[in-house]
Structure formats: C-alpha cells, structure tokens
Amino acid sequence: MTLAIALGLGAVIGVLLGLLGGGGSILAVPALVFGLGLGIEQAIPISLIVVGLASAVGALPKVRARQVEWRLAAVFAATGIPATFAGSAVGRLLPERALLIGFAVVMVVAGVRMLVDRDETGTSCATGGSGINWRRCFPRSVPAGLAVGFLTGLFGVGGGFLIIPVLVLMLGIEMSVAVGTSLVIIVANSAAGLVSHMSGTSIDWAITAAFAGTAIAGSLIAGYFGTRMDTDRLQRWFAYLVFAVAAYVLVDAVFLR
After folding, report:
1. Would the pLDDT of 4 be above 80?
2. What number is the average pLDDT over the span 77-82?
3. Cα–Cα 20 to 30 A to 193, which of 1, 56, 103, 230?
C-alpha cells in the first residue's frame, strides 16, 4: 500500500514538474511527510534525490541546445554547495516543528513567485556575445548562491523559484538560458545536500525508487504534452494549491505536533 501511494504521489509531482518546470518539487517534502507518513529527516534526502534526478533529466536537452551559462552555474554551485552543508547542519539542530514552519514560509514565497510575471528581464550582465560583466554579476550571484544552497540543505528544495528570478530579473539572463542554468545549479546543490543528509539517516530505497521513478516518468510525459496546455493559468492554480498546502503544514506544525 505504501509503495502504491509513493507511485501515485511521485506521478503527481512529476506531472507538475513537467508542466511547470522546477516549481512542482516544492510539494515533494509535504507529500512524503503527510502522504507517506515519513519524518522530515527522511523526507528531505528522498526529496533531494527526486529533485536532483528530475532536474538532471530536464537539464540534458538544455545542455545539448547550449542553453546553460556555465560560468554563472559554477559561481552559484561554488557558493551554494558549502551553504548546503551549512543548511543541513542547522537543520539537524532544529526540532521538526520549527523545520515544518520554516518550510511553510518557503512554500508561501514560492507560491508568490509563481504569481509574479517573470517575462521581463533586469539589467543584463552580458557584455555582448558570450561575455559576462563580472563586476556587475558577481556581487549579485554570490549572496543568491549562498541563500539557495542554504535552503536546499535545510529543507530539501531545489530552489528554482529563487534562482530563476535572480538570473532573469537581477542578472538579465534570457529565460531559456536561465532555466537551463537553474537546472544545472539544482543538480549540484541537490547532490551536495544528499551527501550532507546521508550520515545518520536511513533511507527507504524502495519508496525512493518508486517515488523518483514515477516522478521522472510523469515529468517527461507531461513535458511532452504540456505544450498544448495553458501553463499560465495552470501555474496560477498551482500557486493557490501551494498556499493551501502551506497552510495545512503550518496548522499541523503549530497545533497538532
């Protein structure tokens, strides 16, 4: 029965990932905690596996199309990976209730980001061609990389809802390149987060394989057929779902634990 639930929840998360990009992964931890009854210390590493694998699959076509800004990805990874270990260390010191409350806040931020128009771009870091104005980009990239890495280690989220706005609105990177770059960053941070959470945590590999397998399959299928759907409207409704789940997580953490 547990495996069947894992298969179903993984498929739902995967479909959302395929239709919306990285935003769907924000529901992975709540699905594992409230849908499968896992403790958050078990849910976070499983979420990181799912997020990392799904992002790697999504990144492959972007890499082939050369829609990745590798130098910015390297800056985010270089700052994000140490911050991921720091976030994991902080998470081990916090009670589960505090982690769930913090996760609910992160979900609200992610939902708000989904409702904000992201088509506009900010002041570009590009100097023409493939050049990057590092004097302008570096001071903005470092704190963003630290923040995303810390959240990845603390809550097991990919952080795409933060990376994309930074790349597009703060650094002026074209959306298609920002998505590819974000996926590469998520893969690096998720791998670091998984390593940092492996010590002292037992992972149910059967549940992980079921959840991750159907998530990736659902993501690929939804990504193929998703071009026919009104993704803007779907994203708005998904943001409302995220708000509802965040409210449930908050109520559970404050009143039921």
Report:
1. yes
2. 92
3. 1
